[in-house]
Structure formats: C-alpha cells, structure tokens
Amino acid sequence: MSTEQETNNNNNNTNKTVKFTLIFIKNSEKILLGLKKRGFGAGKWNGFGGKVEKNESILDGAIRELKEESNLTVTRSDMKYLGYVRYDLTESLQTDIVYVFIATKFSGNLAETEEMSPKWFKIDEIPYDKMWVDSKDWLPIVLRNRGLLAKYVLSGERDIQKKSVEDIDVPELV
Ligand SMILES: Nc1[nH]c(=O)nc2c1ncn2[C@H]1C[C@H](O)[C@@H](COP(=O)(O)OP(=O)(O)OP(=O)(O)O)O1
C-alpha cells in the first residue's frame, strides 16, 4: 500500500478523505457570506471555500478559493485557523474534512462571481435556516473566535445520524 493510500484509509472504515476549506470574513458587527449559485450546496448561504487541490497547502487553498469566489485577497498572516468539521458519509464511505478559518482584514473589491453572490449580514441576522443544517451548531463557536472540533455522521441525503461539537482552545493547523 502506498503512503497516500495509507493516509486516506482511516480507521472508521472509510476509504477516501476529501479536504475542503471554509473562510468567514468578519468585522465587529457583520459577517460576509456568499449564496452558492451552482454545484454542491447551491441555494445555501455559507462562508467561502472549496476543495484543496493536490500539491496545495490547506492555507493556500483557502486563500485561492476566497479569491475565486469573492475576488477578495487575504494574506496568510491575516488568516486565523480555528479548527475543522469532519463529515463521515455512511453511504459513499467518504470523509469530508472542512478546515475553518476566520479573517478580519482583506483587500480587493468584493464582487459577485460565477459561484457566489456575496452579502454582509449582521451577526444577529445570520440566515441559519438557509445554510447547511449543521452550521448553526458550530458557527457561533467560530464567531466567538474559539477553536472548533466538530464531527458528524451523515446518511442518505446528508441526514445527521450522529454529531459531536466541541468548543476548544484554538488548535494549530497541521
Ligand atoms: N455540511 C456542510 N456545512 C458547511 O457549513 N459547509 C460545508 C458543508 N459541506 C461542505 N461545506 C463547504 C466546504 C466548502 O467550502 C464548500 C464546498 O466546496 P465546493 O464543492 O464548492 O468545492 P469546489 O469549489 O472545489 O468545487 P468544484 O470546483 O465545483 O469541484 O462547502
């Protein structure tokens, strides 16, 4: 077995791990979300992000996806990693890991892109009912600038079978 296969085989009987990034841009009163226009999660509001490419670091993937989806640029030092959300998909036996970042500084002109339509929301007006069903469990932890460790087991059309959401000290990105 190659090293890569070994890394992708974890001990939960899953056979593939896919890494995603997700970044929330925030100021003291508002958070920037995007309405996904196509593909996975279309019609839902979320932070900006996507799959980490082969031979790309998680941090670089997060910066690239933010630029592609919103036209904004964030420097590496302005990005704060807060933790991850892990989804074990019982049907496809795939594990998705979403690495979550927050940033309060950015440059560039915010723009609608082919993938996302951006909008600033007051913190107390975040549209949780129009986001992924799990976002309301853990986004409040992110908004408090706390570390996050969340795990979901999803079945069928991504129904939650099991979940565990922890507010932790901010971890290192490994
Ligand atoms: N259950 C969930 N809750 C959540 O809050 N965010 C989720 C989620 N499941 C996936 N995401 C995030 C992770 C990532 O930021 C985004 C999905 O990424 P995409 O599928 O758009 O990736 P890409 O932009 O690389 O897609 P393609 O280029 O179309 O393959 O949605």
Structure description:
The structure is a single chain. This protein is α+β, with helices and mostly antiparallel strands and 174 residues long. It has one domain (3-168): Nucleoside Triphosphate Pyrophosphohydrolase (Alpha-Beta Complex), CATH 3.90.79.10. It is built from three helices and eight strands; from the N terminus they run H-E-E-E-H-E-E-E-H-E-E. It has helices at residues 3-8, 58-70, 135-143, and strands spanning 16-26, 30-36, 45-46, 79-89, 94-103, 116-122, 147-155, 159-168. Strands 1, 2, 3, 4, 5, 6, 7 and 8 form an eight-stranded mixed sheet that branches. Strand 1 (16-26) and strand 2 (30-36) form a beta hairpin. The model is unreliable at 1-9 (pLDDT under 50). It binds ligand 6U4.
Using the 3D structure, state the CATH architecture.
Answer: Alpha-Beta Complex
Poorly predicted ranges (pLDDT <50, ≥5 residues)? 1-9
CATH class: Alpha Beta
Q: Helicity level, as a percent range? A: 10-25%
* Overall mean pLDDT: 92
Radius of gyration from the alpha-carbon trace, in angstroms: 16 Å
Strand content: 35-45%
Order of helices and strands: HEEEHEEEHEE
Assigned CATH superfamily: Nucleoside Triphosphate Pyrophosphohydrolase
* Quaternary structure annotation: single chain
The number of E-state strands comes to 8
Enumerate the distinct ligands: the ligand Nc1[nH]c(=O)nc2c1ncn2[C@H]1C[C@H](O)[C@@H](COP(=O)(O)OP(=O)(O)OP(=O)(O)O)O1
Broad structural category? alpha+beta
Biggest sheet features: 8 strands, mixed
CATH topology type: Nucleoside Triphosphate Pyrophosphohydrolase
Q: If helices are DSSP runs of H or I spanning 4 or more residues, what is the number of helices?
A: 3
Per the principal axes of the C-alpha atoms, what is the gross shape? Answer: globular
Protein name: 78-dihydro-8-oxoguanine triphosphatase
